[in-house]
Amino acid sequence: MPKLDKTGPMGQGPMTGRGMGPCGGGLGRGRGFRARSFGCRRFISPKNELASLEEEEKMLEEELAFIREEKKVLQDQIK
Q1: From CA 79, how far away is CA 75, in angstroms rounded?
Q2: Which candidate, 6, 30, 44, 70, has a CA 20 to 30 Å from the CA of 17?
Q3: Measured distance CA(12)–CA(66) in Å, rounded
Q4: What angle do CA 33, 38, 39 make, to 5 degrees?
Q5: Residue among 8, 13, 14 at smallest CA distance from 59
Q6: Which contacts (CB < 8 Å, 24+ apart) does range 47-50 have?
Q7: pTM, whole model, 2 decimals?
Q8: C-alpha closest to that of 57 among 29, 73, 33, 38
Q9: How is the chain split into domains, by residue range?
């Protein structure tokens, strides 16, 4: 949920992402973009897929930066 507005990735509604945000408790409880679209026989253009992958890449980079910061804080507490 990039904008924390409960619309999911690309504004497709709740439970359409990986469940890594507050709605999924950060535990990956969402159904995922690919899993949801697989059975729907919905046409996804390469342009839309590219945009989706770029957005996911950005979210993963932000998540990794957050994890690294949390890791640093914990390492500083141990010292």
Answers
A1: 7
A2: 70
A3: 25
A4: 125
A5: 8
A6: 48/10
A7: 0.44
A8: 33
A9: 9-78
Q: How far apart are CA 34 and CA 32, in angstroms?
A: 6
Tokens of 70: 């949390």
Best CA proximity match to 42, nearest among 16, 7, 18: 16
Q: What is the per-residue pLDDT across 6-60, written as a single tens digit (0 to 9) for each?
A: 676 667 776 666 666 665 555 554 444 444 444 444 567 888 889 999 999 999 9
- Determine what percent of the chain falls in helix, strand and coil, rounding each to the nearest 5: 55, 0, 45
Which residue is associated with the tokens 């950060």? Answer: 26
